[in-house]
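Record format v2
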Amino acid sequence: MRILLLEDDSRIGSFISEGLKQSGYAVDHRTDGESGREFALLTPYDTAIIDLMLPKLDGLSVIRALRGQKQTLPILVLSAKTEVEDRVRGLEAGADDYLTKPFALSELLARVSALIRRSTQPGEQSLLTAADLTVDLLKREVKRGGQKIELQRREFALLEYLLRNRGRVVTKMMILNHVWDYSFDPQTNVVDVLVYRLRQKIDKDFEPKLIQTLRRSGYVLDAG
Amino acid sequence: MRILLLEDDSRIGSFISEGLKQSGYAVDHRTDGESGREFALLTPYDTAIIDLMLPKLDGLSVIRALRGQKQTLPILVLSAKTEVEDRVRGLEAGADDYLTKPFALSELLARVSALIRRSTQPGEQSLLTAADLTVDLLKREVKRGGQKIELQRREFALLEYLLRNRGRVVTKMMILNHVWDYSFDPQTNVVDVLVYRLRQKIDKDFEPKLIQTLRRSGYVLDAG
DNA sequence: CGGCCGCATTAAAATCCCGTCATTTAAGCA
DNA sequence: TGCTTAAATGACGGGATTTTAATGCGGCCG
């Protein structure tokens, strides 16, 4: 997890920086707006912490510049200003959170981890793909090689689950958990049968075969 | 509207560039992958058109680099390769569209405008609500008052349709059109029955009643 | 080489979905 | 109020979907 910190006050800056490093983050610390913006644009950070009062280019301007390009980078604003108005201005410019000085380090850390968690969790992906297979979750539409394929509810659920775990091995137990809500083994071969039926529809007439069997382990869906 | 064009063949490049400018786009034309990537990262383009064969850094690599940072920039790939495999590789790397040479300028323009239109329009709402009812289209999950409700396929489709037309009267004919694909009246009371079943699940044990009957007209879903 | 085990495949059985229809209830109107 | 008609309700049943059970097949190990 990589964090960009823009803070000109060296005492506060190293205080925060140290705290973040302690928590296992990689921190880039810049002390002016101009170089801050540059760094932000060149490196894929997971979060940016930005003080509003900065030399050369103020924090709000940095934020606006970033928002023009990186829609998703989570931004936490630091400010000495406590007015509601300032808070609003910060959030309007595109910040995701706002923290007023002075603050406890623990609070900063908590907010940063919240921001990262929020942005990391699969941002509502509605299109899943593998090779020439596409699954549109909103339209509930499955296509392979441009050709539409009708799936039953369980088949669809299985395919979705496999795709969300693309490249990872998925055990039968995991499938039972997610496609049914069983937390136990039903002592039958439901899973095998379902996998078979799904294969008939999405793999049988196509190449490459997407669903691989791993004897004694489970299944993997992967392109290639 | 600002477009980045990466194409090393100067004849084709200026041909495309001229065409785009004629259509009112601002075009930046680069002829190698390295500078292309740099430009793409520094400027907020609305679309990038990328040839796969480029000096210094090939098109696919450029695309992957961009996808690491700019999730949303629409990318159109140009290529001399017609194989399905190449097409797939392009789309897998993160391209949004793929055009094989040779092509008509008009087609390129059409595709570019389609890409821009698609990315500009507000990204598909996936959560529909009314009062304390929520429908998550991605998870296919319906809740009322925090409590999960299981719906059948048709019931779900009907609810989705009613929600998309919140506050508007929806005739039985309209429902037949959208929930089934009937363009004719099946002469039975399917719709009535379906509405009844949906009500049993989402309205019976709750207040306020969301589905209202308008005698001789149809139904409305509204909170209030 | 032979047997066992795990998965694939197929068929049959059970279950669920949902369209139909008959009947009841209620709204609108004279 | 009583009549007409639309909508609500309840029950049934056929077909689709899903589960179960039986059998086939092939790899792997002794």
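Residues 189, 192-193, 195-196, 199, 213, 215-216 of chain A lie near DNA strand C (CB under 10 Å from a C1').
The first helix of chain A runs from residue 10 to 22.
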